[in-house]
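Below is how a single chain appears once it has passed through the pipeline. First comes the sequence as given, then the structure the pipeline wrote out for it. We keep one example in the README because the format questions we get most often are answered faster by looking than by reading.
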Amino acid sequence: MIKNLVQSMRIKHWIKNIFLFVGLVFDGQLFIFNSFFRVLTAAFLFSLTASCVYILNDVFDRKADQKHPKKKNRPIASGSLSIKIAIIFVIILLVIVLSSAYFLSQIFSLILFGYVLLNLAYSRWLKHIVIIDVIVLASFYLIRIIAGLSVIEVQYFSPWLFLTGSFLALFLGIGKRRSEFINKETNESSRKVLEDYSLMLLDQMLFIVITLILITYCLYTFFAESLPSNYSAMLTIPFAVYGVFRYFYLLHIKSEGEAPEEILYKDRPMQLTLLLWVGLFIYLLYGV
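Resulting structure:
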């Protein structure tokens, strides 16, 4: 039972919660122990909350998952984990997490509660509404950024960076839908909302969002007050461009993107690009 519960928590997906550290890093507080510890704690609590959401989604989608070539092996869909035990576990874990989050930050606890409600609304209704579905998917990443900011005293967080994060999140959401659209012919449980999309529409949306990502990021490197005044942050632009293009390549040539976290775990060029980009940015921002 414990093994099935842990599997249902999808710990591999916790990597998404790295978005909580965006505010900490780019606000210049990475090496402030108290701020780092608070964000690290928040990321752990957010990860547990996300796991609760994953389990609830598995409960709601169990019939559709049973027709999916991969999802049919999940503990709830396969019947190896009972719905009753799963729901009891979620209730207990959510009570513990939300109580702990309240002591960390009242605003943070409200964000977690709102995240759960939005996920439930998405699972039941919003994922069936064309365009709204990808916007909500993107909002899940933005909520993570806001959650990280809510537990520290923000000195200056550039609106250009927030816009870049928004468009990047939208890029991931649209890319996920594109991959699902490509694979729908071999998937009996494909989302009904995919019938309202076309490959051309999704590709055009991706082109627009990629342009916005690169424009807003370039503007961030030049105009953010928290960055060095000598515009040295522009040196990170090539890494950002390659990272976005690499992901775009994986979407179109490899038909990946249905699970963005899998790309980070498997694709070595993407891993190296992110490592170099983060390393260079930390060097320029902190002078370490």
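The first helix runs from residue 2 to 8.

See the next section for the split statistics.
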